[in-house]
User: What shape does this take?
Amino acid sequence: MSAPAAVRRFPAWVMQETQGSMNPHVTDEDRRDIAASLLGRDDAFARLVRRYQPEIARQMLRFTRDRVLLEELVQEVFVQAYLGLRGFKGEAPFLHWLRRIATRVGYRHWRNVARERAFAGALHGQMQPPPEAETASPSEAAQYLFRLLEQLPPRDRLVLTLQYFEECGTQEIAERTGWSRTLVKVCAFRARNRLKRLLVEAGISGD
Amino acid sequence: MQQTHGSIDALIARAREESPPPIDVTHRVLETLRARALSASAPLLVFSAGSLAAALTALAYGFFLIQTITDPVTALFGAAAPF
Assistant: This one.
C-alpha cells in the first residue's frame, strides 16, 4: 500500500516528538505505528487496526445489530482513519480520535437508513413490552433499546445513544459529533421528550 | 443518564454489558486501501498511455517526413515525372 500524497508529510506532533518533546496523550507504540503508517507501511496500520478494532466494534454495535453491517462499519472507520491520518493532531489519545470518526460513520449510516425508510414509506410496528432487566441478557436489552431508539430521528437517536450507552457528557458529545454544546443540549432535551412520548405510546409506564 | 424511565434505565445498564462479536477487519481494510490507491492512480495511467501513443505517432510521422524531405532520390523522381 503506497502512502497517499496527503499523508507523506509528517504532522507537527510526530516531528516534535522526534525532537524530544513527548506528547503525553499518544502512547509510544501508537506514535511509532502512526508514523510508519504515514510512510505507507501497511503492517504498521494493520497493528493499529488490530489494537483498536474491539473497542470500535463495541461502539459500532450501537449503530447496527447486523453482524455483516457491523464489520462493514468498522472497516469504514479504519479506512476513513487511514485517509485522514495526517489530520490526527495528537491532542488526545488515538482511540478518542477513532471514536469521533466512528460516531460520524455510524451517524451517516443511520441517516442513510432513515432516508431509505422515508423513501420506502416503511412504518414501525408496535413496540413490544420491554424485557425484564434482571432476567434479560445484555444482548436482548441492547436489541430492545435499539428498536426503541430507532424510532427517533437520527440526530436525537445519536445524542441519546452517546449519552446512555457511551455515558458521554455534553462536551464529549459535542466533540464526537462536531456540533456545538448548545445544539447538543437542545437535541438531548428534545430527544428525551420524544423518547418519553414513545414510551407512553408503547404502553410502558411513566416515571 | 438523566430523566429516563426507571425500567429503561435498568435495561440501558444491562445493554452496556454487551460485548461485540469477535471480528477482524484488518485484511479487508488493507485491501480496500490498496484498491483505492489503484483506482486513484488509474486516470493518471490512462493519461500517460494516451500521451505515449500520441508521442509515438508524432515521432513516426516526423521520421517519415524527414526521410522524404532529405532523400535526394525523391527529388530526382520528382524531376523525372512526365507531368
Q: What stands out?
A: Chain B touches chain A through 34 residues (CB under 8 Å).
